[in-house]
Amino acid sequence: MEFYDEKNKVYFTNPRLDLIRLIPKRSDNKVLEIGAGGGDTLVEVKKQKLASKVVGIELMTMANSNQTNPDIDQFIICDVEKTNFDFPESYFDVILLGDVVEHLLDPWSFVEKISRIIKKDGVIIASIPNIRYYTACIRIVFKGNFGYESQGLFDKTHFRFFCKKNMRDLFNSPYLKCEDIIPRQNLYKIRSMKKFLTRITFGLLEEFFTMQYIIVAKKV
Question: What CATH number belongs to 4-219?
Answer without folding.
Answer: 3.40.50.150
